[in-house]
Amino acid sequence: MNLILISSKIIYKNNEEYFFKTDNRQTSHLKNILNVTLNQIIKVGVINKGKGEGKVIEESKSYYIIKLLTPIHLEEKSDDNVLPIDVVLCIPRPKVLNKLLQQLSSLGVKKIIIVFSDFSNKCYESSKILKNEEIKLALQLGLEQAMCTRFPEIYIHYSFSSFFMNIEKYTDEHTLKICAHTNVKKKNMESIEYSILNMEKGKILLMLGCERGFSELELYLIKKLNFHFFNLTERILKCETALLIIIGQLLLLTENISLKKKWNQNETILTT
């Protein structure tokens, strides 16, 4: 926990100054990990708002009282940068999903769309990880690690057909839609790299299947939605490993200015 992340609802005002009381998890971390003392300055953030510092002004066995040094909860919105990548995730095992939510939150993914595909285990529908408080905790852990405050938007579709019919919520004419799939030739990635390096605006919608992949019907529907299929390696990777590798490569293509400049220079030479 590199940042104490709180809701603006728990902040109270006293004599023109702002304070909050830590919860059990935050108190345990401050006491047992950071070993904070009275008057110590700590990093504080407000969900979907600003970041700043707070001062420990009171200590007890069960909580700390922290005074905000600046009114960060009054800032209109978070200044965190978000990735130009949204993720469609066919639901994996609950423990894996919990880790992925934390990791995607840390990375700055703006939208996470969870889909129950044909090969998803239907008993996951009753898993506690899909409860609002569990999702919020997983996302918050990721944000606290990254020292960010902007919560990703979470959408859940309990069937693939529901996602198919609502695809317009997640895309526009500038969205590049790509789908990781093991049963395609690796060279398909070259055309995707070309498209990304030539993107002037828009975002990427990345889809990843569950451990068992996609059914034939789902592959047909994904093609109908104009997704580009690609395969990074012949090795069969775990869902969480594959997702982080893919996002890392996409970031290299979207965020590396020198790579884009080099590509554009080569394009100019080839076309003149």
From TrEMBL:
One of its GO terms (cellular component) is cytoplasm. The keyword Repeat does not apply. It catalyses: uridine(1498) in 16S rRNA + S-adenosyl-L-methionine = N(3)-methyluridine(1498) in 16S rRNA + S-adenosyl-L-homocysteine + H(+). Residues 83-248 form the Ribosomal RNA small subunit methyltransferase E methyltransferase domain. Its EC number is 2.1.1.193. Belongs to the RNA methyltransferase RsmE family. It is found in: Cytoplasm. The keyword Secreted does not apply. Pfam families: Methyltrans_RNA. This is 16S rRNA (uracil(1498)-N(3))-methyltransferase. One of its GO terms (biological process) is rRNA base methylation. Specifically methylates the N3 position of the uracil ring of uridine 1498 (m3U1498) in 16S rRNA. Acts on the fully assembled 30S ribosomal subunit. Keywords: Cytoplasm, Methyltransferase, rRNA processing, S-adenosyl-L-methionine, Transferase. It comes from Plasmodium falciparum (isolate Dd2).
